[in-house]
Design brief:
10 helices, mainly alpha
Length: 309
Amino acid sequence: MWVSFQYQDNRRLLQHLHPVAALVYLGVLGGLTLVFAHPLYLLGLLVVILLAIQAVDGLKGWELCLKFTLGMSLLILLINLLVVRAGETVIWWGPRLPVLGELTISVEAICYAATMCVRLLDILSVFYLFNRMLHPDQVLRLFSRFAAQSALVLSLSTRMFPFLLREVHNLQEVLSIRGVDFRKGTGKERLQKYLSLFNLLLLNALENSLETAEAMQARAFASGPRSRYRKEVFRPRDFLCLTGSLLALFVTIYGQIYNYSTFHFYPQLGYLISNTMTLVVLGIILVLLSLPIIISWGWQHCPYFNARI
């Protein structure tokens, strides 16, 4: 399961886009999740992100993002109900608590917490899609001519989390073969086992960092002008995906300016569909963001389309 968090070439179109087109597409998805507060828009973005994850054959690994979000949702809901008092539609009056004051639960607070949970899932899903779509070396090649050292740090950072997850899984298997059972024993004994696992993980990470540094030194990193092994070609599919992403961004700006894609939770809930333009703007944005997914489907199922695009 941990391996599914790192890049795997499944011969899907979204994994073979030009890095510029892929980064713009992912950046627009991530930016819109932070801009939108409208529940329908956040749910629509989640559907598009899930379709994109399916297009790179990564739904199995996405289940962990869902489980993490469900766990965090309880914490978000609890904190929001304890702190926020702005909602006017109160459904329960509780006792007065020290520092926090009178405890009240409102419909507005529940809806706001639920929307923030959807936003959290959107953000985590975008980062997961980033790991499935882009190889870290593609990011390094793209930014190496402008900021080689910063691009290297970014590339290594994106590889660190999947690498550590894979190392934890491997170390657990090795320790299990040697008779270490992480599910048995008292709390103190299990803690000692996990501390031993953490020490091994830290030692292994330091050894790998030295190997990476030696490999960079052997390849004369930053010792002169950087050579290029592979040149990325900008194809028609990259142009279509880039155009769809930018148009979706412009439509979003239009919707935000004229309040077609905005939503107010406090002091009272606004209307989900205030007018027809709310659905029109949402539909246009979703269609534009779904353009790479549609192209991916045609690229996979139509040989003629594959050759032309």
